[in-house]
Amino acid sequence: MDTLVDTAKQRFGIDYLFPYQRLVITNILRRSGYFGEEEQSEAPIHQVVLLPTGAGKSLCFMLPACLLEGLTIVVFPLLGLMADQLRRVKEAGLTGAVLKGGMSSQEKAELCGGLESGETTMLLSNPEMLILPEVREKLKHVKIVHLVLDEAHTIPEWGETFRPACLELGKILPELAPEQITAFTATASPQILEKIKSILFTGLNFNLVMANPDRVNIHYEVLPVLSRMKTLTELIPRIRRPAIIFCSSRRQTEQCALYLRQRLDDQEIRFYHAGLTKELRQELEEWFFHSDNGILAATCAYGLGMDKSNIRTVIHYSLPSSVEAYLQESGRAGRDRQPCRAILLYHPEDKHKEDKNPRVDLRDRYEKLLAFAEDSQTCRRESLLSILEAEPEDCDSCDVCRGEVILKDPVEDLIIEIIGIFRKHFTPKMLANFLLGRYSREIRQGRYDRSSGFGSLSSWNPDDVKDTIHGLISADKVRQLIRGILKGKLTDR
What we know:
Elements (H helix, E strand, L loop, with lengths): L2 H10 L6 H14 L4 H6 L4 E4 L6 H11 L3 E5 L3 H13 L4 E3 L6 H13 L4 E4 L1 H4 L2 H7 L4 E6 L4 H6 L5 H12 L4 E5 L4 H11 L6 E4 L7 E7 L3 H8 L7 E4 L3 H15 L4 E4 L5 H13 L4 E4 L1 H4 L9 E4 L6 H8 L9 E7 L13 H15 L5 H8 L24 H10 L6 H9 L4 H5 L16 H13 L3 E3 L5 E3 L5
Parallel strand pairs: 1-6, 1-7, 2-4, 2-5, 3-4, 5-6, 8-13, 9-11, 9-12, 10-11, 12-13
Antiparallel strand pairs: 14-15
């Protein structure tokens, strides 16, 4: 009898375990003494586990919780992620509880009662709550058989920027005295791994379990764009759904979703970010989880660990902060191991987004992603994975290896040619009117309406034309002179 497979089948409806899952689970159970004292003495005390997105990391700590006596604490970076995991905890027949801010006195009392009686077997929390003195005092009297840190790459990444509580975790772990600690993540460069070690495992030995992060079912491609919204408007009707559009800000998610809904007359496009009410976030999570046709414009508040297996397309509206972030977010696609796409929109403005960041290490990590976006010769998988010191399997699923690379926005040559003909005659506004075929006073006076190219973008949304002209200026393909006059650089050489 295989206890692990039997438990996976009965509790989670899973018929088999991947080799890395079995290894991690077995290490946890060995260390707890589940297989006897001899196995316990030889097992690693702590683990850092790097498994690719979709490899079933949560099963690695949820299955042991079904077999161990005592409390398993799981630390998550996001409330949405905790809500998603609590659903899975309950489906597995475990007694779980969420410790978060804003709880009433009655809710806190019920939670403490479940911990003291031993009824609660899994506690889900975040760094900010776990480091509170009153919380630590309560947990001192509870047997913690396993402490799990999920999405551990966020501990140094966010702790050094906007979540200082993450950096305090390593200081309080000895006080909580868990029998073992396991840190999970899907992506971590050697630099991030070293930071995880210094924050969480100072003076402690740990076992590193690392699988190749390559996801062979994901087709990677980069699209150079001058107008993000124009490209999206053309792209959305052609992609497979469900889909996520990752945006860099809350405002961007709202604009993206609302614009697309209006332009495409599609009510299956919605937005998600951490600024929404709890009730609305839960409603959106539930809707998207069960949707086969939905498109969600979201910040990274959605991406981490959300267990929707059938996402067919992930689009990045702009570049994220690092290769690790890109792999993590693009890895939301195809968790069911079926073919899927990861499309990165690369706009000229992306090139300078981090220029003023005072953190040299963060600029360096962003520049590595820039190099990936601009490299049209190297296999996308090879380019991404080399930064993590990993190697891809044979690739036939990226735009480079399939010979499908797009080097520039298709409309670029047309506009530059027109600017070259009428150089120093057009302001950005006049050029937009010319392309849209508008008979403005300046167009009529100069008789430009009789020229070739007039109205060549008459079917476009005016905002997209303005964005495209701005994109050319940002890319330094076109110069804007005094009084807003445009000058074609290419014809000046």
